[in-house]
Amino acid sequence: MKVNPELIDEIKKYGAFDISACFNCGNCTAVCPLSKEDSSFPRKLIRAGHVGMEDKISSAIEPWHCYYCGECSATCPREAQPGEYMMALRRYLIAKYDITGLSKIFYKNGWLQTWLALGMLAAFYWLYSSYTGDFGALAGKIELAFPVYVTIALGGYVLNMYRYAIVKPLGGIKASLKPAHIYETLVHGFTQKNFNGCEETDWTRWIAHLLVMSGYVLTLLISNLHLLSPLDKHYGAFGPVSLLVWYAGLAILVGGGIMSLRRMFKSAESSKFSHPSDWLFVVTMFLIGASLLFTHYLNVAYGPQDPLLAKVYRLNIAIETVWILLIVPFTKWIHIFFRPLAVYFQHVKKEAEAGTAFTLNIGAAK
Amino acid sequence: MDEKITEASSKDNYRQEPKVGVYVCHCGGNISDIIDVKAVAAALAKYPGVTVAREYAFMCSSNGQDLIAEDIKNLGINRTVVAACSPSLHELTFRNVLQRAGVNPYLHEHINIREQASWVHKLDHAGATAKAIRLAQAGVEKVKRKDPLNAIRVAAEPRVAVIGGGVAGMRAALSAAGKGLEAVIIEKGPGLGGKLLGLGKMYPSGEEGPAIAGKLEALVRADKKITVHTGADIDFVGGFVGNFKINFKNADGTSAQVKAGAIIMATGYQHYKPAQGEFGYGEDANVVTLPEFISLMKNSPAGRLEYSGKEIKSLALIHCVGSRQVEGVHKPQADGKINDYCSRTCCSSALYAANQVKDKYPGVRIYDVYRDIRTYGMQHEEYYDKASKDGVLFLRHNETDQPVVTSDRTGHTVKVKDVLTWGEELEVKADLVVLVTGMMPADISLIRSQMKMPIGADRFLQEVHLKLRPVEMANSGIFIAGTAQYPMDVPEVMAAAGTAAAKAAILLAEPDIPLEPFVAVVDEHKCTGCGLCPAECSYDGALMMAEKNGKKVAVVNPALCKGCGACVAVCPVRAINVAGWTLDQFDAMVEAIAKE
User: Fold this and answer.
1) Contact flag B425-A51 (C-beta cutoff 8 Å)
2) Residues of chain B with CATH 3.40.50
3) Terminal-to-terminal C-alpha distance of chain B
4) Which residues of A fall within a CB distance of 8 Å from B394?
5) Confidence band (pLDDT; 50, 70, 90) for A201?
6) What mean pLDDT is predicted for residues B150-166?
7) Which of A103, A147, B455, B549 has its CA 20 to 30 A from that of B229?
8) Is the pLDDT of residue B8 over 60?
9) Using a CB-CB distance cutoff of 8 angstroms, which residues of chain A are in contact with residue B389?
10) How many other C-beta atoms lie within 10 A of the C-beta of residue B481?
11) Which residues of B touch A (CB under 8 A)?
């Protein structure tokens, strides 16, 4: 194999600035609670990066197993930050899977995405404020358009991930049809089980992560199913929808708040290094929760005709619009789908090695 | 006997009736826990010729020593046997007790009942006790037959000859001169400075090699106690401690001789020269050695690393060329042996050079192909740290999978079976391949064979004991400074050269040198002049046949004799004995041990 020294320089643009200091001792792999015999990391992936094994890096699913507990970075005798390297690889892979190429531009250009988000927020708020028709009806349509957009974006990603992780390295379309594997994938998706595989469970981080995730999924359901029409209906404080909104909003605020504090005080290995997109992600999430809560509070307290409610609701929808259009498809938000998929692809790879994988032969068989 | 060698006379105890004192040591419990020391002392007290026998907790303590001195004073003891630890530990202690009490120090016998009895027979107390008694009795028999001996004193030239005028030679001469000795540097090359003259920036200070050499040379030239001969071609080295003679030809063809009491070998090293075709060396122009690369770097214009007019954008360093060679993998050297030693300094030098490249030409890609990185010196690991952080890519092969260099019009390709990349064969493209060559000893075969200097398996000069006597050779009066001994960097050479000079200064501190009296002594009446013994002697000139009083006899030079006893073993008429270890003494010891 020809050594390609450019690759590591490329990966370094996504973070992992210290990774050249690695001297391949393997301590990181030894302490990693999630590294297993059939998927061993981070050492091998670091080496693959150093010598420029591009195929190995782009087909890697190991970065999606890693939850960045930071054991490796704390143990690394060279302070090469292997945990941060895995983070950088996740960004690199997102950019790789992204067909639009926008993720790549955003990741490499620091605060560009943030400025763009602020600009878009202002533009949409202005647009929504100047809309003279029935904004409640428009918001309903916008919210129903979100899942379509997200599904398309996500579909592109997932197909590309499948192409890089399975089709290219295994030379064909392969799948695992074992119910146990499919079930496990779903379990991982809902519980983020691997999070607790990290040896010394960082409970605060896990709770924050779970709060944000559940709050966020609820918010998604609320908006995408258009459960809320705050400009048209007056909600009681303890109705079923209200309870969902209270929970979703508070979960995001508390979880997002904890995450921001940790990033600010760099209290754990995983929050020592922050990419601008990490801040954008956390802050926007926080704003979504806050505006949702505030909207609902105004509705419950003062009814749908409240003049402040009209403004806050427009802001809420504007934030969601920017979130859906700009942030969801082009940052690590997307990883909530990659993690369970990685668990599934791992099974596919293993079955392919054992020759038991379901194989779809297109054209001439090999 | 040479007129320079004398035996100092001292009061002797020749004609006195032997009065033996026996002292049994407990050595804490080391001996007395196993051996019944009281029984040993009691048995020895009754032994013929023994005047007094005592036991004590620590004979080597000042109380123990006083016990012996008192007996000498009060009981007229004139020979002692101490049954205790190993003689290498405390024999000298008790010799000194005798000397202080006015008895010839060589009338002492040290019997080892710790290593030879209590420690090895822990489960057999009675047996160990019986053995200790026999050993002590043999000691009594031996000491009764001992003659007083006196240290041999050799008049010495108050001068040290330093062979080699590189950094080691200059430092050694300066240190010796600083201690008041005359020093003579005999250098083969046209000037002082040696290998430093060809090197560039040197770790750790970053000074240029020639600059360091220049500083030392200025000091040497200014020192009135140092004489320098350059362009000197040595054709003879002979003599012995205190009286060495070195003959050489000056550059103008005239002959000269230096007489010296001690010699410091500062003959240095030579760079390993790769064999024709080794990693493409000698066949491809862009394969160079590290020393060649260092001068190439010196001559490159600023901002552009250049070799024969072309810009170098990538380079591959291959470590361990000519060092740590493996039997069956590497071609042997001219003498049929491989260089299996580590040259020590090359890892640090290579990384230091790589860091200079990265500092001066940050765009140059560097691949470092190695087996092990051994940056052993103080803070040398920082060179590795810096190199790896600056993006030098390290590729590691194992000893049997040597890297392969191939060339075509686009440049060089180095193939490495990289153990860090799970054995994957990796290929790197490089504009220049730098072979990190090690050190081999300089060719000093003439001096070495004339003085019978020992060398190690690596062909470097060998010291007596790496830890205990690190700069002394087995040849008395010859010391080693620097890379003549093994590969060293400049700070280590400086330390070694200073040490060698200090050792030489101690040796030559007095006008004559005391030597141990345990040398071969020939009984000229018994000697038949058969001539068997000189053939057995390993030390040139120590034993020769000569005419004496009209008779051909063996003659010993006590300054050269090491007392090994090889001549004693071949003499058919028992005419030779080693003083202090005579055949009669051994006979008596054997009889005492083996008696019913």
Assistant:
1) no
2) 1-150
3) 45
4) 23
5) low
6) 94
7) B455
8) no
9) 18, 20-21
10) 36
11) 365, 367, 384-385, 388-391, 393-396, 418, 420-422, 424-429
**Who among A8, A20, A24 is closest to B420 (CB)?**
A24
| Domains defined for chain A, CATH in brackets | 6-97 (no CATH), 103-350 (1.20.950)
Q: How far does B309 lie from chain A, in Å, by closest CA?
A: 25
- From chain A, pick out residues whose CB is under 8 angstroms from the CB of B424: 1, 51
Residue of A18, A51, A78 with shortest CB distance to B421: A51
- What value does the mean pLDDT take over residues A3-8? 94
Low-confidence winner among A104-113, A283-292, A324-333 (lowest mean pLDDT): A324-333
What pLDDT is attached to residue B487?
97
All CATH 3.50.50.60 domain ranges of chain B, comma separated, are 159-268+442-509, 275-433
**ipTM, two decimals:** 0.83
DSSP conformation class of B538: -
Q: Is the pLDDT of residue A364 over 60?
A: no
Domain B1-150 adopts which CATH fold?
A: Rossmann fold (3.40.50)
- Residue B161 bridge partners (DSSP): B184, B263
pLDDT tens for each residue of B361-395: 999 999 999 999 999 988 999 999 999 999 999 99
> Can you give the length of chain B in residues?
596
Architecture, CATH, for domain B519-578: 2-Layer Sandwich (3.30)
In chain B, ranges of CATH 3.30.70.20 domains: 519-578
Query: Who among B365, B421, B425 is closest to A47 (CB)?
Result: B421
DSSP string, B221-237: HH-TTEEEE-S-EEEEE
- Please spell the DSSP secondary structure of A271-300, one letter per residue: GSS--HHHHHHHHHHHHHHHHHHHHHHHHH
Distance from CA of B312 to the nearest CA of A (A): 16
Residue in A3, A8, A9 closest to B426 by CB: A3
Strands (E), B127-174: 152-155, 159-163
Residues of chain A neighbouring B365 (CB-CB closer than 8 A): 5
- Measured CB to CB, residues of chain A less than 8 Å from chain B are 1-3, 5, 8-9, 18, 20-24, 44, 47-48, 50-51, 53, 78
- The three-point CA angle B548-B549-B552 to 5° equals 45
What is the CATH architecture of B275-433? 3-Layer(bba) Sandwich (3.50)
What mean pLDDT value characterizes chain B? 93
Class of domain B159-268+442-509: alpha beta
Asked whether residue A36 carries a pLDDT value surpassing 90, the answer given is: no
